[in-house]
# Entry
Amino acid sequence: MQVSEIQWSKTEKEISRSAFDRAYQREIDSLIQTVTETAKTISDIDQVWQLHDFLSAKRHEIDGKYDYQYSSLIFVFARLVREQWLSIDELEGLEAEKLAKISALVKML
# Structure
């Protein structure tokens, strides 16, 4: 079965949404903490523009990463696990085949 053809049960959709939202919130919280700490140390205009550039790049990265479409969730979850925004245990309740695909992708990324 192709990844894009995977079916998601109602329970799996709930588990997926919860895990997805948790990972997103963790990354956003981390970003806010980084920005807050960085902003406290800004002492010249070049540092302001560096922070701006950093935030622009982060926004692009985060907007591209957090794509909640069932056809791509296996890949999204693999990336989030690989980047440690999510643990494979937080996806418990998903079908064993989905977890196996995610785990295999984590090793390949």
The longest helix spans residues 10-40. The mean pLDDT is 95. Helices lie at 10-40, 45-65, 73-82, 96-108. The two ends are 21 Å apart (CA to CA).
